[in-house]
Design goal:
Number of helices: 11
Largest sheet: 8 strands, mixed
Radius of gyration: 19 Å
Enzyme class: oxidoreductase
Mean pLDDT: 97
Pathway: Cofactor biosynthesis; (R)-pantothenate biosynthesis; (R)-pantoate from 3-methyl-2-oxobutanoate: step 2/2
Low-confidence stretches: none
Pfam family, one: ApbA
Order of helices and strands: EHEEEEEHHEEEEEHEHHHHHHH
Number of strands: 12
GO biological process, one term: pantothenate biosynthetic process
Keywords: NADP, Oxidoreductase, Pantothenate biosynthesis
CATH topology of the largest domain: Rossmann fold
Length: about 290
Amino acid sequence: MVRIAVIGAGAIGGTLAAWLAQSHDVTVCARSPLADLEVETPEGVIQAAPRILTDPAEATAVDWVLCTTKTYDCPAAAAWLPGLMGPTTRLAVIQNGVEQRERFPQVPAQRTVPVIIDLPAERTAPGRIIQRREGTIHVPEGEAGEALVALFTDTPIDAQTTPDFLTAAWRKLAINCSGIVSALTHRPAEVANDEGAAEVMRALVRECIAVGRAEGADLPDKLADQVVKWTTLAHPQSVNSLHADFEAGRQTEVDARNQVIVRLGAKHGIDTPMNRALASILIAASTRP
């Protein structure tokens, strides 16, 4: 039985903790106390009663730490690491963007595993989650990646290694960066059917492609059109997480989804005016009095 600590008890963290607790020793590190976890999954309702910690001073070393917080909560998540990380503990960073390894520099790179997750879920109340479909996890090839995949052997979550994680991460960022259009127009996925909005989405993705290629990702030109097409095929009322957070007045992950393209573009001398402009507008709108 593997000892696993999950930092974050939101939709992703709660779902992963509930599934992993069916066959492993799981601790959930959260801001507020929880009685237990209950997840409505495609296979039925699962329940779990993992150990719940709210004070980093109470943490003890585990085999794996899974960080599932929003990217802007990394400083708070890092407070748990001194207690959780032993000499051989590995850290899986399950977050948006392409800078997972850079977010926790205090952990050796060889013990940090960046993770791409596609697991539609929503938290309806503390410890109560609806998982919309089974979900997938992708990690880099190698011993650490294979060890993470093994954690999910007894779950319906499809975890696997990928030989080109860099490209996979930038491909997901290409999808995520276009979601800012929904946020700023206050329209769900159906906004991609508007040709003007669709062209803005393509421009955002083209900038992502250019920067991703400079970073070493293998991204085709057609990806810009594909992202728009995939969005039109989604449920017309589906809302991405950036849009949901913006509408609710919460902090957003615009840095990990759009500003990172601007930041890395500048490093390579690549101009990214569309991502820069829309990120600036969203930030201004988020900080209005």
